[in-house]
Amino acid sequence: MKKNKIILLFCLLLMPVLYIAMCNKRPTGVTSFAFKPSISGYHLFKGKLSSLQPAEGVEKFELSSTLFTDYAEKQRVIRIPKGQKMIIESNGLPKFPSGTIIAKTFYYSNTTKGKRLMETRLLIYLNSVWNAATYKWNDSQDNAFLITSSAKVPVNITAKNGKSYKISYYVPSATECISCHGSQGKIIPIGPKAMNLNISVFRNGDTVNQLQFFKDKNFLSFSNKHALTSIPSWEDPSETIERRARAYMDINCAHCHNESGLAGGTSLRLSYQIKLDKSGIKENKQNIIERTGFMSAFHMPKAGTTIIHEEGVKLMKEYIENLPKQK
Questions:
Q1: Does 268 fall in a domain?
Q2: Is this prediction's pTM over 0.85?
Q3: What angle do CA 235, 238, 243 make, to 5 degrees?
Q4: Which end of the chain is less crowded, N or C, counting CB atoms within 10 A of the terminal residue's CB?
């Protein structure tokens, strides 16, 4: 019995080291790609660039639950080559045609300087390879420029929870983006899985299913929408704590904590579809609370956050602390 306790203690002490080692790996096989020097070169937006008004052939999309990035808001757009379509065959990522561009712009609506655009991250799919780049918005907010190394931007914000924060917003380099988007040595999108897109959205003065809207726009093809499932919003109070917490873990953690992710060597599997008994959540309850609830070298998620997400941590803690105790 004493020997077992020693082994257990050793494993608990070793786990943070494994977490960092796995999450700091970089995928191999990432090809070089010549990105344009500024975001304006892609003609994703019309009119005043900072208005983020999608250009012709560019569509906004929304996700059921979104990744936390220091309380930043995000606008997501996609451009599918003319005459091509995304193809949905399962609840996972659609099949994207070559030439697809996905752009995600991070911004704050309420800062001491008004609305501030921080960065736009770009994914371009060509020749069966996703290529990633980061564009940092300039002080005059009239364009965003390609960066090859990370940057910090101080900003004072008021979040939608009503609290004020002084943030040193971190703009990652493309290499750092790969640390989350890496899977089996390749870059892949994280958010736009079919089950994240299968939600109601407000378009043209009406509430419609997003997948059906894309299909009507000839952006997307699927054989049976009703066979697809969906993930709830972690912010939806009408949902159970379990469904909300698992949705939160899916979008914030599962891109690393899955069999082919960068934390695939750990015992956690945090995709929404994984059953609790197979997820490793019960066995790692204290680690999850500690790694997400305190800023330190061991903090999770490893990228995209410089402050604690109070609401997310509270949700996960409530869920975890009410799980049945291990026998």
A1: yes
A2: yes
A3: 65
A4: C
